[in-house]
Amino acid sequence: MKYFYQYEDNKDLNLQELLIESFDNILITDCKARIVLLSKSMVKALRLEGVDLSGKTVHDLILSGYYTKSTALECMKLGKQCSGIVHVTGKGNEKDTAVFSTSTPIFDDKGMLRYVITNSRNEAALEFYARELEAEKLNSAKYQDVSKYLSKLAGSSGEVVANSAAMQKVIRLCSLIAKSDSVVLITGESGVGKEVVARYIHDHSPRKDEVFVPVNCGAIPSDLVESELFGYTKGAFTGANPNGSAGLFELAHKGTIFLDEIGELPLPMQSKLLRVIETGEIRRLGDTKYRKVDARIVAATNRNLEEMVKKGEFREDLFYRLNVIPLLISPLRDRKEDIIPLAYMFLNRFNRKFGLDKRMSKKSLDNLLDYSWPGNIREMRNVIERYVIITPGDEIDITFEETMKSSQTRISMESGESGEPVTVPLKYAMDDFERKYIEAALRDCNGSIAKAAEVLGIHRTHLYKKLKKQD
């Protein structure tokens, strides 16, 4: 193993200077215990400032009362690495202190001792590391599943967090569901991870090597839904591709099509989707013939389809055809065990994305657990990304103000100076504000995309696109 690499631009490298400037306390002695080199930090640790050490040995320092014993002498005597606590005598009003030292012997080709290199850490550093270690032990006891989850995640193709009993039940059910081709209806609040679960089903099914086609039914303008789903023929409508185009169902042939926000599908299209489920055939817009498609259908919604059926907003027959295998994803507030692993997953993702190495404080972890997460996993992802970007140091301290917790959250911008220093690029700041504003609107509207879009003064399709961009 090679430990030193020399290049054209480091031929004049002076290793002595590097050792002297080292942050670590370093002492090098020869086979006679004579002092050969000390780092500046070691001089400070042993309180040797201004002392002439020419020709001095470690024995001399002990006899002069600078410290009580030497691991270097023990190392020379035993011919092996030695460690121990060394008490350093205070000068004047200074208190006695202690350092933890480790001395390592260096032998020549004939096995004769040449040097001993000693590294040490002072008492203050030891106390700091002891506090950090204790804090890590507390965190480990409280969040012991995190490392297990992260190691499991590293070898997993999906991003399903299943530390909670509720999600473990979902995953067990998904493993059974994946074996069949039956239609699945995934329900749950906005942002709980319905598409992730749909992908999990696909990835564990016999169709896993085929395409997975996600479709947001609410993001497609009503007059284009049919052509998007089923395709169209040449000259089907003004502005169409002159050669016609296959629809999303045809693209999903042999694979899985995920119909997200199925509750937003216009009533006329619901009857056509029903026919596809019943016959396995689609007809392109403007065509006269039907085409066979083999695509597994997984649908999802954050709306109550049964209530929509009662109000005449959703076809009853379609509801029953979709609801063959119902799958409910619980909100994040009801599965606390998933919160910390999710937070670390997103932290790792954004650290990689931005080339950073941020970490979360213990207080952050406590705050994450205490928060109710009305926006579920989508909100958590945005929160973690926000703090990764706006935190100037390496440790993230996530807090939730009362205004964020309120269901009547309002975000405003003052025209005057805020007094806050500018720490992030304008683009990130604007994106961050937009995320917060949309989150607030969704909270006020209890997760309803349609109502939130109306409040924001934008088309529902536009809001879907913004949410997709945030994903």
Automatic annotation (TrEMBL):
Keywords: ATP-binding, Nucleotide-binding, Transcription, Transcription regulation. This is Diguanylate cyclase. Residues 160-389 form the Sigma-54 factor interaction domain. The keyword ATP-binding applies. InterPro entries: AAA+_ATPase (IPR003593), AAA_lid_NorR (IPR058031), Homeodomain-like_sf (IPR009057), HTH_Fis (IPR002197), P-loop_NTPase (IPR027417), Sigma_54_int (IPR002078), Sigma_54_int_dom_ATP-bd_1 (IPR025662), Sigma_54_int_dom_ATP-bd_2 (IPR025943). GO terms for biological process: regulation of DNA-templated transcription. It comes from the Bacteria. Pfam families: AAA_lid_14, HTH_8, Sigma54_activat. The keyword ATP-binding applies. One of its GO terms (molecular function) is sequence-specific DNA binding.
